[in-house]
Structure formats: structure tokens, C-alpha cells
Amino acid sequence: MLPRKSIGVIIIVIGVAIGVFTYIQISLQQNEATHSITNRNQNPYIEEYSLPVGSWPNGIIADKQGTIWAAASKTNKLFSLEPKSGMIKEYPINDEDFTSDNLERNSTMVWAIVQDNDGVIWFSPLGTKSIWTFDSTTGKFHMIKSETGSPFQMKVDKNGDIWFTTLSKDTLGVIQSMGNDRYKVSSFYLGNDTGPAGLFLQDDSVWIAEVTTQKIVQYKISQQKELVRNITKTLEIPASVKTMLSAPTDLIVSDNTVWLTEHGTSFLTEYKLSSSDVVRYPTSQNFYHATTLPFWIRNTSDGKGLWFNEHEGNKLAYFDIYNRTLLEYNIPSLPKDGFLTYPLNIALDPFDDKKLWFSEWNTDKIGLVNGKTAIHFGISTDTDKIMLRNDTSKGNIVNLEVSGQSPYSSNEVFLNASSSIMPTAGFGNMMVKFSSSVLDLSSSHRAQLFLQNHGVPAGNYTLGISASDGFVTKIIFLDLVIP
Q: Residue 388's closest CA among 300, 306, 459?
């Protein structure tokens, strides 16, 4: 799944049948329908809301009033969710000004949804030449033709302009209001096979994550009479061939640092602009020892945390920038005929960015992670750095302690280790073993991790050590140096 340089796989086309869910009695009201089903008891950190069977939700946003909007991938519908009541409404996407031929092409994946400064919802089905608006006050849709292509990601700047990437079209676009419900869509060609995915707006610059070139590029925005006229490349990273990125998909720029998801790996990556130093923070390893595929990334308003989704990790993740710790929240639902739920998209709650909304593509659900729910256990080690030479006669021992209790798992926690040595977060030619992989916190809080190098290439790596109760995983990171 998800070849690193192919749009066809980034859009995740999987032959997975849809599970059977509870029948939902739908009450039609003009062009909308309402229903409400909430799942609350499977995970103390996550709530889930069921959509109609066959919805396959992807693009999601929490608007300024706290209403959640999600787009169906196969049914030409936009859903709204009122979190307090659990009430869900569905709106068939239709613009009376256009023919059905134009509308049929909307039966595809909607990756990007934003709300503009006037409260209008914008979205676009990838692979079409259309961008849609929805006015929630009138319930009306409007389609705008876009020869630039359809957005893969959209962001609204301080002036109200909507910037977007097109992924397969190798262009950056911007939508600007011309007044009287008229809009100008401009496009800027970024080069052959660039694969622009994520974007980040900073002052008079726009940063682009290019999946295909494996680059992060900064452009200066040139405006004239409040209209965008041109963009000029000012920076491209990595600057050296010694550093390679693997399918960078999304990014946040803060404090002279670029934070990015490398979708070809299991890493959240930190790139220092001043020194070009790179630190990769691995997620926990999944059951299949495959890459967890971090995808979108969102930063909290205080600048202290980053949320991201793992397309094959079955988790949503929160990284504490200052403490350098990672929390992973397990998605409770699974498809009936599969072992992984695909949380394709994420959105911060507008009133509390310690809460994250996400779409469950192959379970027909919307989920909410509550990052304020207390976690009753912690993990620590007796060191923050390990130097391990290539010598099979010697090894290294890390002493670790799991504090607190684990009330949701009969007081048991499960230990795991991961690293930035391998894209899968595995260890390659390094032996890794815990003295005990399960701790009963009723009687024991300590364990040891044994490490022995059997030929790992020299370099600076990151070691992750985690404890999990099956619902949430806490990961701490150590520097791992192979001289």
C-alpha cells in the first residue's frame, strides 16, 4: 500500500469490503437527512460517531462554531456532526447551475476541506477540475471550474485567500475573492513530477512538501494590488545529498525548524534550518513490522505540540515538542474483514486543540481523540543517550521504570522499542530484547532493555521506548549513536 512516488496509492484504493453496521433509520428533510449513533465505551480516550454504511469519509474539518464536516468518498454527500448532541446531517452535493455530467465526477476522494473567513465551506474531489463551496446557512452548494486541478490540501491565509496543492498536477493554486461571489483561481507551475502535497503559510512565504522530489521548498509570494502575481523559490531542503527525505507529505514551520511527516517511513522528522541537522522520531512498531505511514500534521496554538495521523499504524499521535515525548491513541474500531483502520484525515477542535477529530475511511466513522483525558502511567529511563559500538561481544543495558497504574488493562502495560534505523521503525542488524515485555504494575515497575550491535551502519539515530495499556502508548526518546 502507498508506493512512495505514486499518486494512485497515496489515494489508497484498497479492495476492502465494508463491515456491517447497525441499521440507521434516516428521516429525509428536503435535501438533508439526520441520524445519530455514538460509540463511547470502547476506548477511554476516543469517541466515535457512525455515518451511514458505505460513506467512506475522508476530508474533515471542525468549523468555527464547533460543527464537524466530513466528505463521503463514494456517495456525493457532505456530513455535519454536532458533537454535543451526536446529531448527524447529510447533504447531497448538487449545484443546479451545472449538469449531471459535471456532478458525476464528484464520486471520488475529497481530501481537502477548509472554512473561509466568511464561514463558507470549501472542498474539492481530487482528480476533477472542480472546487466546491457550501453555505451552511442556506444549504446551497456551488461548483467553480478549476483548470488548475483539484486541491489535495488547502489552507486559508490571513487575507482570506485560499491556497492549495494539486499533487498530480504539479501546481500550487490560490483562490481569491473578486467580490459579488466571483473568484479568481490562479496557478503556479512547480516543475515536472514535483508532487506537491502539504503546504504551510508563513508571512509572505508558502512552504511546500513535494512527495515526488522528496524536497521541502519555500516560495516568496509576490502581490500587486492585493492579487497574487507570482511566487519565487527561495529555499530548497535538504540542501545536501547526504540527507534524504522519504515522501515528505505535510509540514509545520516554527522557531527555525521544519517539522514534517515522511510518509515512506514511520517517522515524525525535525529539520533544523540553521544547521541542517535532522532528528527522526519513530512511532511504535506496528504488529506487521511495516511502516506506519505518518501523513497530515497539525500544530497546537501554543506551539508546544503536534498532532499527526498514521495511515497504517491504527493510531493518532500527539508529539510534545518540549518534552520530546509521543502519545499514540489506538483507534478502537476495526473493519469487519481487516486489521487496520485508515484514519485518512484529521482536524483540530476549534475550542480545544488538545482534541483531534479524524475520519475513519474504512469503518464509516468520525472519531475524536481527547488529549485531556488523564493517562495514569508514565515511563522513564536512567539515561538519555546510548553509544553502541559494532561489537557483538559487548552490549548496552537501559534501565527503565513505568510509574503509576494502568486501570484500563488490569494494571498491565506492554513494553516496546522502535528506532530510526529502519523506515519501519525496526532495528535492522541490532539485537533488542526486554527483560520482560509485560509489566504487572501491581507488583513490578522496572525492566531492562538489552541492545547489541551486529552491524548497524555508523550514524546518529533515535531510540524510542514505549509503554502501552492497549488504548494509549507513551514513547520516550533516547539518542542512539553508532560510532
A: 459
On whether residue 2 sits in a domain, the answer given is no
Backbone angles phi, psi at 249, to 5 degrees: -110, -35
Residues 362, 470, single domain; the answer is no
Q: Work out how many domains the chain is built from and give that number.
A: 2
pLDDT for 287-317, tens place per residue? 888 899 999 999 999 999 999 999 999 999 9
Reported pTM: 0.90
CB atoms within 10 A of CB 384: 12
DSSP letter for each residue of 35-91: E--EEEEEETTEEEEEPPTT--EEEEEE-TTS-EEEEESSSSEEEEEETTTTEEEEE
Q: What is the pLDDT of residues 51-95, one digit of tens each?
A: 999 999 999 999 999 999 999 998 889 999 999 999 999 999 988
- Count of CA atoms in the C-beta half-sphere (13 A) of 273: 15
**CA dist 27 to 24, 33, 36, 85, 200, Å?**
10, 6, 11, 16, 41
DSSP state of 31: T
- Give yes or no: residues 364 and 444 share one domain: no
58 shares its domain with 198:
yes
